[in-house]
Amino acid sequence: MSLKANSVDWKAVVNPKSLILMVLGVLCSAVALEAFMLPNKFLDGGVTGMAIIVNLHYDVNLNLLLMLINAPFFAIAWKKIGKTFTVQSIISVVLLIIALEFIEIPAVTEDKVLIAVFGGVMMGLGIGLIIRGGGLIDGFEVITTYFQRNSALSASEITIFLNSLIMLFAALFFGIEAAMYSILTYFTAIKMTDYVVEGFEEYTALTIISKEDERVKELIVKDFGKAISVYKGERGYLPDTFHIHHPCDIIMTVVTRLEVHRIKLAIQQIDPKAFFYVQTIKEVKGGVIKQIGSKHN
Is 111 helix (H, G, I), strand (E, B) or coil? Predict the structure, then answer.
């Protein structure tokens, strides 16, 4: 949630779908921590990673640490990001603390690679479900958003810097090997979170410049069931024939990454010299996005 909210939207907070997603996410995160990460001193990034370091090194209660370390971040969120978002995040953290306090899950395996990979998968799945439910269990996301708005650094640069410090402390306290496995766990969790939040069908903008633009438009719309946007432009201007150029329609369509290859092959059958460029996009709303029908299987 990027817009400030003046009051708590309690309908959103108690929305059954959001609560179910948060509960499922908390359970997955609890499994990741108790069955994989904590018994082997593997860390996640963010507040959870900080809490695990202090818990394992100084024997301070993990649940208390999760509450105390997240508190200042959620205070910032309450003032700077949104009250509804903050309440949902607090609920998520409280649910995680309850799960860790009352649910005992035995360690699943002693294989360190399996622990890093599956611990990261379960943690990423949990975080992703909680985000889809409207909350967070890690205050670092709050501080990342806040500093991004007030500095020249991007969100990814801030996140990498902060989590690099955590992994450095992990190396100092638990050794290089544990830190390396923690990095593997962290990046696995990041990828899994992305898949859960954004979906496996990541959308892609495909732009085509072709001398057979009319046939290409017909192919994309009628055979693949995709909407298109058309820009008026010119093709040509090659190094050896710079003075030769022709008007053409530049065609842009939004497809999933699973469809890009099939559409490109079909276009190349019409025009082997067609020019493509592909851009990954994060969010799509409106228009015709989903495939209606296709003759190309």
Answer: coil
